[in-house]
Amino acid sequence: xxxxxxxxxxxxxxxxxxxxxxxxxxxxxxxxxxxxxxxxxxxxxxxx
Length: 48
Hints:
The chain has one domain (3-47). It is 81% helix and 0% strand. It has helices spanning 3-29, 36-47.
């Protein structure tokens, strides 16, 4: 058995878990609602 190949596989699995965690965190941190763009647009128009 090649221990180097096992370490590369483990490293790839851990990297993919970290990337998935970052993507999930980014999606949860931003509020993606249908009214997001219109609310921002109304706020900018009220300032003008």
